[in-house]
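Recap quiz, item 2
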Amino acid sequence: MPRLPAARPNAVRTMLDAEERELVHRLKLRDEAAFSAFVLRYQERVFRLLLRMLGDRAEAEDLAQEVFISIFKAIDGFRGDSQLSTWVYRVAANHCRNRIKYLTRRRRQLTEGYDEQGDDHLVSAAHHGRTDAPDQLIEAKQTESLLQAGLLSLDDEQRELIVLREVEHLSYEEIMAITGLPEGTVKSRLFRARAGLREYIERAERGRKR
Amino acid sequence: MNSAEARRVFDAAVDGELDDEARGAFEQALASDTELAAEFERHRSLFGKGWEREDVNVDLLAGVQHKLRARSGGRFYRDRFAERSHLRGLNVMVLLSAAFLIAVALWFAYQLL
């Protein structure tokens, strides 16, 4: 019988520790050295979130820079009633939602009049880079691109929740603080997102075996 | 707990959110239904450990500094170019003053002639 996993952390620290308080204080003074340290500390987390959400490295890099510039300008609005990282994720998620809306509008304008590709392009995206070489690296790459294609097949809200929970390993409380959604909604959407992703991956793997 | 009920709590089981009683019932359901156990293993392999956080290898600092410098008109992350542009106004004043002094000197010279 499979052993059930131990609980993942759900409690969240809401108070800033002394180091974060000092960092925020210096950021509010527009201390350039402190801001550089802040960018170096958070750049991977912000970029990873945006990369998973947008599925495009150049777009994610550009948006991540905009996120940090917004934070530089808006740090006075950070009251310290959540962790700094939660606030950073919230700013990044808001930017990301806006960028997705913009990109969707632009894509719709560009593809107007052309036939819809349907779902098949998602499966073929999952097969992208497939080779028969028995190489673990290639296998890992295939799994990675399958997961990313699966993520992109979800709607934006579901994708955001999956990324925050499964990629960034955040607690439900942190996710609630970032998205502004109540716990029940987070859990039910996450439930549907996981089911959708599982279904997508099973469908893609069945297609691969054929 | 029957198989359908157990399927509904896959997420909670993976997240470790089941209390002792529900956890026991869930494990019994898995033990009595091999198909359910296989499905749960599949679900857990996807969502149980959390996905690997791949090394994204990104360096945003130079780009952020560059944009901040440009958008603040050289106020932040000022480089030598920005400092020069800051002094450009001062240079203009010096040139105007020099031109004025030369003009005054020429005027006196003309008066003396």
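The radius of gyration of chain A is 19 Å.
The longest helix of chain A spans residues 84-111.
End of item.
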